[in-house]
Amino acid sequence: MADAPQDDKPLLAQLQSLWRELPGLVSDRVELLSLELQRAARALAQIVALMVAVAILGVTAWLVLWAGAIRLMVRAGLPWEAALLVAIGVNGLAILLAVRRVRRLLPRLALPLTQRHLMLAPDPQPQEAANDRAVA
Fold it and tell me: Is the residue at 72 inside a domain?
């Protein structure tokens, strides 16, 4: 039993040493996090700028594509008005399909599965499972 107090001293010294080093360890990690967040913010700004450029170039290509398609339709004998209506109709259909898909995806932004998991008494029959099958 005389050995027990001697064993506690090194453990106590280790704990005290760890306690003294803890602020330094935490501040190093916080500084690393701060530097990484700054780096991530710069990368995000570059990504956004590049995506804007991609969007502009994509819209330009889309317009040129439709200009060529309309010209081909007119050369094939279709009146200008009809060719423009075809282009508008196809684009309108694409818009309609995209809007329908966005509306189906909107409920996912509320993180329904996480909310249900964090509730004290979750519903036994989640509606999200049915929505996931319909969206996928």
Answer: yes
User: Which tokens hold the place of 89?
Assistant: 């109709």
Range(s) of the domain holding residue 24: 9-78
pLDDT tens sequence across 73-100:
999 999 999 999 999 999 999 999 999 9
Reported pTM: 0.56
